[in-house]
Design brief:
Elements lengths: L9 H54 L1 E2 L10 E2 L3 E6 L11 E10 L2 E8 L4 E8 L2 E8 L2 E3 L17 E7 L4 E7 L16
Antiparallel strand pairs: 1-3, 2-3, 3-4, 4-5, 5-6, 7-8, 7-9, 9-10
Length: about 200
């Protein structure tokens, strides 16, 4: 009689090892895919949060822009790449207290930056866009201008435009932030004078 063998043959062990390595590879591939999807979702959520924060900062400062009485040092001036004015909602300032601000679009090394500078010289970057170009546009009385006050019509227009648009053109898309300025657009004798 033949003795009964205990154990596995070499071929059986090799088959089990091959199957185990295939299952392990499939699990690692699935885990890797899941991590890539997770990182992509978190990246999109971060981009949306940054966009919402940028939009809030830009809108809150511009919407609270106020006209100034004489002397008009710090009076609102707008160009394609710069806005200078006084706002009651400056970043880092006391809410409701007027302060001077400057928003500047700076394009350097193919990166567009939107910089904010307060009356004390503190500078913050509100947004960066690679390979983009941007400009401010001023709307008043259904007319569009590249600067404020308009050069040829300075006497005909008030101190503040009705709406300011920030336009960012990139390869992927064009973004717009349109901000309307409520309240007075021209200083009156009862307006608050601030020492800026």
């Amino acid at each position: 009689m033949k003795k009964k063998k205990n154990g596995f043959t070499l071929l059986e062990v090799l088959v089990v090892l091959v199957l185990l390595s295939m299952v392990t590879a499939a699990l690692f591939e699935g885990l890797s895919f899941t991590m890539r999807v997770r990182n992509g979702i978190f990246s999109q959520i971060d981009q949306q949060r940054i966009g919402v924060l940028q939009s809030h900062w830009i809108r809150s400062v511009i919407a609270a822009t106020i006209p100034l009485t004489e002397p008009r040092e710090g009076e609102f001036l707008g160009k394609k790449d710069t806005i200078t004015g006084a706002s009651t909602n400056t970043l880092g300032g006391v809410p409701g207290a007027p302060g001077r601000y400057t928003l500047t679009l700076e394009n350097k090394d193919n990166v567009l930056k939107l910089n904010y500078t307060d009356q004390y010289g503190a500078k913050y970057t509100l947004g960066t866009w690679e390979g983009a170009d941007g400009k401010f546009v001023y709307i008043d009385n259904f007319k569009r201008f590249d600067r404020w006050p308009p050069l040829a019509l300075i006497k005909e227009y008030q101190q503040l435009p009705e709406t300011i648009i920030l336009r960012i053109d990139s390869v992927k898309q064009t973004k717009y932030w349109a901000v309307s300025i409520p309240g007075r657009h021209e200083a009156k004798s009862t307006a608050v004078q601030i020492g800026i």
